[in-house]
Amino acid sequence: MHNNDRTKVAQDRAQVLIETLPWIHSANGKTIVVKYGGAAMESPELARQVMADIELLKLTGVRVVLVHGGGKAINRMLKALDLPVSFKDGLRVTDDATMDAVQEVLIGKVNQQLVWLLNEYGANAVGISGADGKTLGCQQLDPDLGHVGEVIDVKTGLIESILDDGYVPVVASVGCGPDGFYNVNADVAASKVAQGLKADTLVYLTNEDGLYRNYGDPDSLISRLTAAETRMILSSGILAEGMIPKVSSIAEALKAGVNDVRIINGTFPHALLVELYTDAGIGTMFTQN
């Protein structure tokens, strides 16, 4: 590499660092809830990038909470057990056997893998489920869905204690009620946790670039929506079935006082840092006004 080329690379790197400074300054001390899912969870390389991003956020003074599901891992387990995979309105139909598989996969496997990864990066993570400390108190959402929980009570004491001790809470989307455990949609779980913590920002890492006005048309990506616009698009009937729980949970989070919510593509290299610490937002941002 010629000297001029090396100088240009160094200048570009310095410019990126300079661009991040005001964002890092504004984020210091804030609470950010990250819902982790999609391809970013399935790919080892993307997973490492997400964990590195979370460690850097933590080092710059952000209180990060990671909430996760594990739909593809659950599907693989159900297939291995020769159990049906069924959905209604974007939610998994969860009978007794499926609930057992959900707990085994989310709490026993996925959660602990994420804790291990974060610990390897020095982030010092602690794994819990929504049942621990009665974090996500539930009742049955719909008898046709079985053990799918509607979150009716959020207790954030355990999460706050973990944060105060300097750890990253990693929360599996399983809740509890008087009659046992419930499978909670991970988007809903992340929204409820963000609401309970009065989080500054909620980020959904997904397989999508964001929210589209015309699903499948890349030119119709929406860069920003207010809370009022979010409610309007939710009632418009244009959303794909799988997006309905996510956008509903976003509207609820904004109504409860979460400052902003982002949907970003987790397959984008270091998507969290680019979205939060640079001028070039990469997804859809939902704001109060």
Concise account of the structure shown:
The protein has 289 residues and is α/β, with parallel strands linked by helices. 44% of the residues lie in helices and 24% in strands.
Task: Please tell me about this protein's structure.
This protein is an alpha/beta fold. Helices cover 44% and strands 24% of the residues. The chain has helices at 3-27, 39-42, 44-59, 71-80, 96-120, 157-164, 186-197, 227-234, 243-255, 271-277, and strands spanning 31-36, 63-68, 87-88, 91-92, 125-129, 136-140, 149-154, 168-172, 174-177, 180-183, 201-206, 211-212, 221-222, 224-226, 260-265, 284-287. The strands form five sheets. The protein has an eight-stranded mixed sheet, with helices on both faces.
How are the SSEs ordered, and which strands pair?
Layout lengths: L2 H25 L3 E6 L2 H4 L1 H16 L3 E6 L2 H10 L6 E2 L2 E2 L3 H25 L4 E5 L6 E5 L8 E6 L2 H8 L3 E5 L1 E4 L2 E4 L2 H12 L3 E6 L4 E2 L8 E2 L1 E3 H8 L8 H13 L4 E6 L5 H7 L6 E4 L2
Parallel strand pairs: 1-2, 1-11, 2-8, 5-8, 11-15, 14-16
Antiparallel strand pairs: 3-4, 6-7, 9-10, 12-13, 15-16
Unreliable stretches: none
Terminus-to-terminus distance: 48 Å
The radius of gyration over CA amounts to 19 Å
Strand order of the largest sheet: 5-8-2-1-11-15-16-14
Key attributes of the depicted protein:
289 residues, alpha/beta, 24% strand
